Amino acid sequence: MTTTATGRAAEQRAADYLVQRGFQILARNWRTRLCELDIVARRGAIVHIIEVKYRASTRWGAAAEYISYDKTRRLQRAALAWCQEHSHVGPVQIDVLTVEGRLDRPNIELLEAAIAG
């Protein structure tokens, strides 16, 4: 499986996980010149900007540890751009969803409000 195909499969697992927990998916792979937002979802009144990180192994660290300071800044700016484009004025938070291990039996964890908005 190519890296792109693996990433898409991990994002699909993430989206399925979110839907099972009551999230409504608003957008996937939404792009701006600043960054790509993996998943934009709503649960209740809150819009969640969700960065999906996949690692087949945690040998060299957990998936969430691979989000750099620069990536967090880009995510913050892209979240603002999404809100402006969609005229959203309610609460927003940036979450990290980690997918670790084999994709047929992944360990999935949602870290809510993991990145300050």
Features:
30% helix; globular; five-stranded mixed sheet; alpha+beta
How would you describe what is shown here?
- By secondary structure, this protein is α+β, with helices and mostly antiparallel strands.
- A hairpin with a 4-residue loop joins strand 1 and strand 2.
- The protein has a five-stranded mixed beta sheet, with helices on both faces.
- The chain is built from two helices and five strands.
- The protein has helices at 3-20, 69-85, and strands at residues 24-31, 36-43, 46-55, 92-100, 107-115.
Short structural description:
With 117 residues, this protein is α+β, with helices and mostly antiparallel strands. It has two helices and five strands; from the N terminus they run H-E-E-E-H-E-E.
Net shape: globular
Mean pLDDT: 91
Strand order of the largest sheet: 1-2-3-4-5
Order of helices and strands: HEEEHEE
Poorly predicted runs are none
What count of helical segments does DSSP give?
A: 2
Largest sheet: 5 strands, mixed
Q: How many β-strand runs?
A: 5
Helix fraction, binned, reads 25-40%
The radius of gyration over CA amounts to: 14 Å
In angstroms, what separates the terminal alpha carbons?
A: 34 Å
Q: How much β-strand is present in the residues?
A: 35-45%
Going by helix content, strand content and strand pairing, the class is alpha+beta
Provide the fold topology.
Layout: H1 3-20, E1 24-31, E2 36-43, E3 46-55, H2 69-85, E4 92-100, E5 107-115
Parallel strand pairs: 3-4
Antiparallel strand pairs: 1-2, 2-3, 4-5
